[in-house]
């Protein structure tokens, strides 16, 4: 289980204590994301990793892609749900709610009921779940199934990269006790 009230299991340098390179990275991250989340601060002892983390995050979730922002956030929730990462489910279900207006679909993604979703989103979530649960079981047929919904190879690459990214982040959260912030407002989705 993650740390309580955002308190991680390793030392964190808070923004008001940050100096030098860490302060610069915190300031840049806040400028891009609107505020600092606990997942950002977990990098405080090695700020270069926060810079790399944020560059990958911004490209995968906000960069040019054949996948919509809605689809990308659905993949994020699907992976995080599969891993039992309540922190990332909460953050990315909130982001998904900005793009998915159907309450039934929002609940379905959070619960892993892919059959309720449109075919393309359902297959993306099924693929992300399979890649998360048992990556060695993924076959070419799984990729072909994504193509059958009209996704091209670039979209499929993006889906795999987003799933892999969230597996990385979920393991930081779960492995270091990153707890959900009491107040989560101010993020740019």
What does this structure look like?
- The chain starts with 19 loop residues before the first helix and ends in a 13-residue tail after the last helix.
- The relative contact order is 0.18.
- With 189 residues, the chain is mainly alpha-helical.
- The chain has helices spanning 20-33, 38-41, 47-62, 69-83, 86-96, 103-111, 119-133, 140-147, 153-176.
- The chain is built from nine helices and no strands.
- The chain folds into two domains: 4-62, no CATH class; 69-172, AhpD-like.
- Helix content is 61%, strand content 0%.
- Helix 3 (47-62) packs antiparallel against helix 9 and helix 4 (69-83) packs antiparallel against helix 5.
- The protein is elongated, with a radius of gyration of 17 Å.
In short:
With 189 residues, the chain is mainly alpha-helical. The chain is built from nine helices and no strands. Helix 4 (69-83) packs parallel to helix 7.
State the end-to-end distance. 26 Å
Quaternary assembly: single chain
Listing every helix as H and every strand as E from the N terminus to the C terminus, the arrangement reads HHHHHHHHH
Q: State mean pLDDT (0 to 100 scale).
A: 93
Question: Any idea of the CATH topology of the largest domain?
Answer: AhpD-like
Name of the CATH first level of the largest domain = Mainly Alpha
Q: What's the name of the CATH homologous superfamily of the largest domain?
A: AhpD-like
Parts with pLDDT < 50 across at least 5 consecutive residues: none
């Amino acid at each position: 289980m993650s740390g309580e009230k955002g308190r991680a299991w390793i030392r964190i340098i808070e923004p008001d204590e940050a100096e030098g390179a860490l302060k610069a990275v915190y300031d840049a991250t806040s400028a891009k994301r609107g505020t600092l989340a606990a997942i950002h601060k977990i990098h405080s002892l090695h700020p270069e990793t926060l810079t790399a983390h944020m560059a990958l995050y911004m490209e995968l979730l906000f960069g040019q892609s054949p996948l919509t922002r809605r689809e990308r956030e659905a993949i994020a929730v699907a992976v995080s749900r599969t891993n039992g990462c309540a922190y990332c489910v909460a953050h990315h279900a909130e982001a998904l709610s900005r793009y998915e207006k159907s309450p039934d679909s929002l609940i379905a993604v959070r619960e892993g009921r892919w059959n309720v979703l449109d075919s393309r989103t359902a297959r993306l979530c099924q693929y992300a779940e399979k890649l998360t649960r048992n990556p060695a079981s993924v076959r070419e047929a799984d990729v072909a199934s994504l193509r059958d919904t009209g996704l091209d190879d670039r979209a499929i690459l993006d889906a795999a990269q987003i799933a892999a990214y969230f597996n990385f982040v979920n393991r930081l959260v779960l492995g270091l006790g990153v707890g959900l912030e009491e107040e989560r407002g101010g993020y740019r989705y």
